[in-house]
């Protein structure tokens, strides 16, 4: 089994969110060296961006569904 983390671009929203919470907790605990802290910070930034990308995609899908629903109710097929 590898200790290498899953590439960020392969993570789903929940996975990215959960790992980000773990990164934040580790950083808040302190006691890490500068290099490890920087690596964690960078990973956290990537995870946060990945989660935001998922949320933006979900928002766009919801808006499209609402627009499609509004179009159907405004122009019902008879």
Mean pLDDT: 91
How far apart, in Å, are the first and last alpha carbons? 60 Å
CATH fold naming: Helix Hairpins
Rg, please? 19 Å
Number of strands: 0
Helix content: over 70%
The helix-strand sequence is HH
Principal-axis shape: rod-shaped
The proportion of strand residues reads under 5%
How many helical elements?
2
Q: Would you tell me the structural class of the helices and strands?
A: mainly alpha
Largest sheet: none
The top level CATH class name: Mainly Alpha
CATH-derived architecture: Orthogonal Bundle
Question: pLDDT below 50 for ≥5 consecutive residues: which ranges?
Answer: none
Please indicate the count of domains.
1
Explain what the structure shows:
- With 78 residues, this protein is an all-alpha fold.
- The protein has a single domain (12-72), classed as Helix Hairpins (Orthogonal Bundle).
- The protein is 74% helix and 0% strand.
- The longest helix has 41 residues, at 34-74.
What's the quick description here?
This protein is mainly α and 78 residues long. 74% of the residues lie in helices and 0% in strands.
Looking at this protein, list some descriptive labels.
0% strand; 74% helix; 78 residues; Helix Hairpins; 2 helices; single chain; mainly alpha
């Amino acid at each position: 089994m590898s200790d290498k983390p899953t590439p960020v671009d392969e993570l789903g929203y929940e996975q990215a969110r959960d790992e980000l919470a773990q990164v934040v907790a580790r950083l808040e605990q302190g006691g890490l060296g500068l290099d490890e802290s920087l690596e964690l910070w960078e990973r956290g930034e990537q995870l946060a961006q990945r989660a935001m990308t998922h949320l933006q995609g979900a928002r766009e899908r919801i808006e499209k569904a609402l627009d499609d629903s509004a179009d159907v109710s405004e122009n019902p097929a008879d």
